Task: structure prediction
Amino acid sequence: MSSSSATYILEMNNVTKRFPGVIALQNVSLKVKPGTVHALMGENGAGKSTLMKCLFGIYSMDEGQILLNGNEVVFENSKQALENGVSMVHQELNQVRQRSVMDNLWLGRYPKKGIFIDEKKMYDSTLEIFKTLDINIDPRRKVSTLSVSEMQMVEIAKAVSYQSKVIVMDEPTSSLTEKEVEHLFNIIERLKKENISIIYISHKMEEILKISDEVTIMRDGQYITTKSAKELTTDEIIRLMVGRDLSQRFPSKTNKPGDVILKVTNLTAETQPSFSNVSFELRKGEILGIAGLVGSKRTELLESLFGLRSIQSGTIELHGRVIENNSPQEAIKNGFALVTEERRTTGIYPDLSVGFNSIIANLRQYRTKGLFVSDRKASNDTKWVIDAMKVKTPSQKTPIRSLSGGNQQKVVIGRWLLTKPEILLLDEPTRGIDVGAKFEIYQLINELAKEGKGIIMVSSEMPELLGVTDRILVMSNGRAAGIVDTATTSQEEIMRLSALY
Amino acid sequence: MVRDTKNATVMKWFVDNVIYVVLLLLVAGIVVISPDFLSVTNLINILSQSSSRIIIALGVAGILITAGTDLSAGRMVGLAAVVSASLLQATDYAYKMYPNLPELPLFIPILIAMIVTGLLGALNGVIVSKFHVPPFIATLGMMIGVYGITSIYFDRPPYGAQPIGGLNQSFTTFAQRGIPVGQYEIPYLIIYAIVVSIIIWVIWNKTELGKNMYAIGGNPEAAKVSGVNVTKNLIIIYTIAGLLYGFSGTLEAGRVGSATNNTGNMYELDAIAACVVGGVSLSGGIGTVSGVIAGVLIFQIINYGLAFLGVSPYIQFIVKGLIIIVAVAFDMRKHAKKK
Result:
C-alpha cells in the first residue's frame, strides 16, 4: 500500500468549477482520512453542494483532481460513485415510499435466482446489514410507514451495502429528535470502526463539534481552512465561515411589549394524542418563543391557532373577544398569519414566480371592478415584499425555486405581511437557512414586533430562542411546562422544563 | 378500549379491501332481487366476457403503475382484431380481403397482430421515455394515429368498409369454444385470461422488471440513482402492454366473429376505470393483479347483472360512473390522514 492511500481515503485537490459569469469553486481542496468524520461547513452558497456535485459527477470539474484511495477517479453519475464506494445520504431522502424497505435497499441490483428475484436472500442480507448497524426495522415494512429517522437509517444501510468507503451526509439531523440524533451518532461511530469515512454537512455547530474529527470550512467558493475539531469553537467556526466576527449572532432587541392582545385558555386538540390544556397570553409587540423537544406538539399548537386543526375545548380570545378559528380563512380574517415549518412542501410554489409567491395569500385585495386581478397592484405589492424584506432576486418573474432558502423564507414572510396580520405565527422560521440570512430574518422579526405585531415563534434552536424572544413557552409532551422570561432564563432551565412530562 | 381497537381493525380491513366488499355487495344485491342470477351459466358468461378485458386492463395497469397512462389501448385492440381477422378468413368465404391467402396456422396471424401492436407499444415507450412526451399526450396521439392506420387497412378495395367476417373454423374454435366439464363448457377465453394473469403476476412480483416498474412509478429519481435503466424498463413495460392488446384484439375478433375499424373503441377508458376501481394508483407505484381483475369483474357484473335484471342500459352508465367515483373516494381515505 502506498503512503498516500494510507493517509487519505478521498482527496479532492484544487477543484475549480466555473459557470457562465461566475466562479463557483476556486481551488477548493478536501482531504478525508479513513475512518473519520469530516465536517464540511460554509454558508449556503459557499459551494459545499457544488463541490459534492463535482464529486458525484453531476457537474464536471474545470480543473482539479479526485483521488480515491490514491487512484485518480472521475465519476460520471452517482450510480458510478456508489459502485466505487462513495455514496450520499440525501437531505430529501430518495426512496420509493410505496415499496418495502428491502425492495428499496436492493433496488437496481436485486439478488436473483435465474430470472426470478431471490426474496429470501434479500431478506437475510438486509437483516445482516441492519444487525451490524444496530438498526431495528422489519425489512418487509413499507417505507411510507417509517419515521424520517428510520428512512435515513435505511439510506445509510444502503450505502453500507454498497461497501461504501465514504458516505456523504447532507444535513442528516435536520428532522430528527434528540434521541434519534443519538442513535445516528451511534451508527456513525460504528461506521468509523468499520473504517468508513463520513463527510458531514450541517449547519448545527454544537453537533459538528461533538461528532466530527476534522472540519473543512469554505466561503464564497473558496477553501478557507481544515482544522481538527478539537481546536475549534462555535464562534471560531462562525468567524471563519462568514469572514467577519459574528460575535453578535442576534440583532439587539428594540421591541417593547404592550397590552395583551391574545389570550389562550386551556386549549386542547381534538385528535389526541396532541397538546392539552395549554394557556398563555401574547402582548402587542411581543415575541413569544415556543420551545420543546420534537414531538412536544408545538407545530400542532400553531396549526390549531391558525384553524388547520380542530380544537376539542378551550378558548382563544382576541382583544377580550372569544374567536373561533375554524379554518385558515377565518384565522386570516381575524388577523392571523402562519409561516409553516416545511417551506418546500407547504410554503412555496417552487416553479412559480417570486411575484406569484408574494401575493397569493392576499389576492382579494387586487380585485378591480368585477373579478379580475389587477397586475399593477399585485406588482406594487411584490415590489414592496422584495424591498422591505430585502429579497435578493433578479426579478419579480424569477421562479422562487432558484432563490436561496433564506430569500425564499423572506418572500413567504412578506406574503403574510401583505395580509396585514396582527398576530404572526412562525414555525421554525430559520430552518435550513445559512447564518448570514438568519441574522436578517431575526432583524425582520424584531422590526415587526417593534411595529406592534404579536409574534409567536416555534424553534428547535435554543440560542435562537434566547437571542430573539421576550418570553418562552416551554412545551413538554403536549403540555405547557412553563413560561419563562428570556432575559432571566437559561438553556438548562428550558431543557429541564422540556423534559418535565 | 379493546373494542375500540377491534373496531378500528375491522374498519381498516374494510377500507383496505373496499373493492372486494363492493364486488360482494353488488352480487348480493342482484341475487336478492333475482335469485336466478346465481347460476354456473351466468358465472361462465361473466368470466368469459371479462377475459379479454382483463388482458387489456393488465397491460394498462402496468403503465399506470409507472405513473403513465395509455389511451391508445382500445385502438390497438381494434388494429390487432382487424389484422388477425383479415388473415384468418375461411378459404371459401366470398369477401376475403386476401383472396389467394391459404389457410394459415392459427399462431401466425396472432403472432403478426401481437408483433404489430407490440412495436406500437414500444414506440409509445420510446416517445414517453426518450422524448419525454407526457404519457397522456403521447398515447393520445397514438390513439388517433392508430385509428387512421386501422381504417386505411380496413377500408380499401375491392370490398371497402365492411366487417371482416367469415373467419375460419380454427379461429372461432380458439375464441368461442371451451373445455367440456360435465354439462358445461369452460371457455378457452377464461383459461387464456388466467394464464396471462399468472404470467403478469409473476413478472410484477418475482422479476426485476416488476420491481423496477413499481420503483419507477413510486419515485423515478430514486430508481435512477439506484442505477435502474428507466428508459429501457419503460419501453419494455409499454411493449408488454402492446403485446397484451394484440392478443386481446385477436380474441375479440374471434369471439365476435368479425372485426371493424371500430372494434375496441373506448376499451382504454373501461380498462383505466377498472384499474382505478381495482386500487391502481394513477400517481404510480401502487397496484396488484388481483385488484385489476376485481376491477374488471365489478364492471362486467354491473353490465351483465343489471341487464339480467332488465335495468335500462342508460341507468347502467350512471351506476358505473358512481362506482368509479365512490371507489376512488374510498381509496383516497387510505392515504388521507385526519388532522
